[in-house]
């Protein structure tokens, strides 16, 4: 036995030990901090949607004819960012938001409890409001509170904060009110407990007052402009019929808008009395534009012009018009595919797959020992190392395990021994031809190599095509199968050849020529 | 020496016997459903819902809820036990889904939504197209790979072509039997079926290559023997390996079939059939076909049938 083989054997043993550590359930992960080098890696198996339950939805841009011309990759990217932000707001661990093709976004939300509501949130066009700002100078991008609150949980999750639940009653959440708006001009989130609030608000305000901290309190205070002052909502996007880029008589770029009948009435009454005041256009509580009312708008048709010389830059005007018309998403999205798996179905699948995997592996191990005896037993050890490497890679890469992915892995263990079978059959042939043991063994490995190589390449080619198919059509389940099968094929080349050969050389070295006559041990 | 090659036409006949019922099933299926295989919503677009109720249900009652909503083209079956309903209907949007589920809850009873799959019709047709491309691409890539891998052997193109023939054999066996199962047990082709089919293609070729590799090795070594003898020798030398590998894969697949999750049963069944067919076709089709081609038997056969001279193949 050469030195190289001894080194290899030692390496394999150490390697296997490391693999077992990585594969152990409840592995703490790797967290190393060495100067500038920082490694922070969780080591655990990632379960796919079909195993842990969850939602996979494919959204497609539903481009209205008037947006078709300006629709491009940037539009989709902007939509993706918004969807991603909303997904993050749902509090799901390990969500996935990805562009697919030119007009689609794929979203995966593992373990989501209310898939229907999640879809509604993702597609939401956003709440557009026309807000009475009086003479308060609001600027673009400011986050403000308004008197209208359709979805308190979502927009105001951080506002129900009270520093000390002992002394403060949990009723100080003025943003949730619609009735106290007029009186709340001076109100800040840190308002004194003396303020009495109507009883129906108390209910909504009791959200989790004791668990909140001062820190969130501060965030709340700084996030909203003017200390969280509540601006009254005049009307909403429901009252807007159309908004478009246009030019005025001076040739300057403006945004022309048209109101519904109801909107026209509201706006006429308001603007008649408030010339000189500001009406802010607010999307999801963020100020888009804060124009000053120059004159009363009585016909329901008005224009927003920039206060600056030269008017709006065209790009900015277009963006504003689109936001007013279609909401926060630069393009409406419709659901073209939706797959939801309940958690119980997934759990059942996990247990069944694990059982099937263990039984399958056991049968293969047994077969190899019965059919090939001593070399078979050594190949079995290599097969176990093969399984360990696979699981370790699933944790390290990481590979998301779906039901087909697990099937791919189990199937690959069955196929993994193929290389060993090719080698051992060759070895037997050489032994029958009267070759000495060691010569026969080495010849088995060398001669079988070409067929192992060529046959595995064909499987890898198939995997590549499967992967392409899977990644182009949202069929991530197909992709998972292709990945685990391909990984299996590659790892197998290492374990079935290098590892098994090292074990066999070592064993033959230990036993010397005694094995030569014991043909039953070699399965000949 | 046992001679497999000699009885080649017997083995071709056995293949034909397995494939023919499948083709008949595909014809019947085409007449009945318009496609040779029953297609799932992955390809046609539509909705699949699995609802588990607290009490036993009658599928017809659940169906009535959908029919009353105007979805006459809805099928409802029980899955597993009579508490679980498997509902198939057209692609629903979120609003329709909410309304229908509310109606079901009201008229039938409370349930847990175990699975909900909705595929828009556009996606369905795209997947179908991609599936066809995937299968054709796999065939082409493999043909060129084998042609290239055996470039030093005389007539290397034949090896690729015969491997493809064996592959088509396996695809026909698998889809034919699946079509039959579609008629008998309402099995539907989904994206996973396609995955199984492509895997079968890969393994079928893997099997064939192992035998071809031995032929490649033996041809220059045994110049005295004729081609038929060399091929037969190569087959016998590798048959142990073929059977051993085959047995292993079959054991594993049977384990998954018996103990694995219900949702992948059809997937595994296709793999199993394909695996079996793959081994058979590489030993009894792909390799004997080389001899048939080499001896120019196709030409001779045509001559006999049509009674006029055909060009003899080299």
Reported CATH architecture of the largest domain in chain B: Up-down Bundle
CATH architecture classification name of the largest domain in chain A: Up-down Bundle
Question: What's the mean pLDDT score of chain B?
Answer: 86
Radius of gyration of chain B: 25 Å
Strand order of the largest sheet of chain B: 2-3-1-4
Report, as a whole number of angstroms, the end-to-end distance of chain A: 24 Å
Structural domain count of chain B: 2
Please specify the SSE layout and strand pairing.
The complex is a heterodimer of chains A (524) and B (314).
Chain A: H1 3-23, E1 30-34, E2 37-41, E3 46-47, H2 49-52, E4 54-61, H3 73-89, E5 96-100, E6 104-110, H4 115-123, E7 128-134, E8 145-146, H5 152-155, H6 199-205, H7 214-223, E9 230-231, E10 233-236, E11 240-247, E12 253-259, H8 261-273, E13 278-283, E14 286-289, E15 301-305, H9 314-326, E16 333-341, H10 343-396, E17 400-401, H11 403-432, H12 437-472, H13 476-511, H14 519-522
Parallel strand pairs in A: 3-17, 8-9
Antiparallel strand pairs in A: 1-2, 4-6, 4-16, 5-6, 7-10, 7-13, 11-12, 12-15, 13-14
Helix pairs in contact in A: 1-10, 1-13, 10-11, 10-13, 11-12, 11-13, 12-13
Chain B: H1 8-33, H2 41-44, E1 46-53, H3 59-68, E2 75-78, E3 84-89, H4 94-107, E4 111-119, H5 121-149, H6 156-185, H7 191-221, H8 227-259, H9 265-294, H10 297-306
Helix pairs in contact in B: 1-6, 1-9, 5-6, 5-7, 6-7, 6-9, 7-8, 7-9, 8-9
Report on this model:
The complex is a heterodimer of chains A (524) and B (314). Chain A has 524 residues and is of the alpha+beta class. Chain A folds into 4 domains: 3-45 and 342-522, Multidrug efflux transporter AcrB transmembrane domain (Multidrug efflux transporter AcrB transmembrane fold, Up-down Bundle); 54-125 and 333-339, Alpha-Beta Plaits; 148-231, no CATH class; 234-326, Gyrase A, domain 2 (2-Layer Sandwich), CATH 3.30.1360.200. Chain A is built from 14 helices and 17 strands. Chain A has helices at 3-23, 49-52, 73-89, 115-123, 152-155, 199-205, 214-223, 261-273, 314-326, 343-396, 403-432, 437-472, 476-511, 519-522, and strands spanning 30-34, 37-41, 46-47, 54-61, 96-100, 104-110, 128-134, 145-146, 230-231, 233-236, 240-247, 253-259, 278-283, 286-289, 301-305, 333-341, 400-401. In chain A, the strands form 6 sheets. A 4-stranded antiparallel β-sheet of chain A has the order 5-6-4-16. In chain A, a hairpin with a 3-residue loop joins strand 5 and strand 6 (104-110). Chain A is elongated, with a radius of gyration of 34 Å. Chain B has 2 domains: 5-37 and 123-306, Multidrug efflux transporter AcrB transmembrane domain (Multidrug efflux transporter AcrB transmembrane fold, Up-down Bundle); 46-119, 2-Layer Sandwich (Alpha-Beta Plaits), CATH 3.30.70.3400. Chain B has 10 helices and 4 strands, in the order ααβαββαβαααααα. Chain B has helices spanning 8-33, 41-44, 59-68, 94-107, 121-149, 156-185, 191-221, 227-259, 265-294, 297-306; strands at 46-53, 75-78, 84-89, 111-119. In chain B, strands 2-3-1-4 form a 4-stranded antiparallel β-sheet. In chain B, strand 2 (75-78) and strand 3 form a beta hairpin. In chain B, helix 5 (121-149) packs parallel to helix 7 and helix 8 runs antiparallel to helix 9 (265-294). Chain B is elongated and about 85 Å long. The model of chain B has no long low-confidence stretch (mean pLDDT 86). Chains A and B meet through helix 4, strand 16, helix 10, helix 11 and helix 12 of A and helix 4, strand 4, helix 5, helix 7 and helix 8 of B. Strand 16 (333-341) of chain A pairs antiparallel with strand 4 (111-119) of chain B, so a sheet runs across the interface.
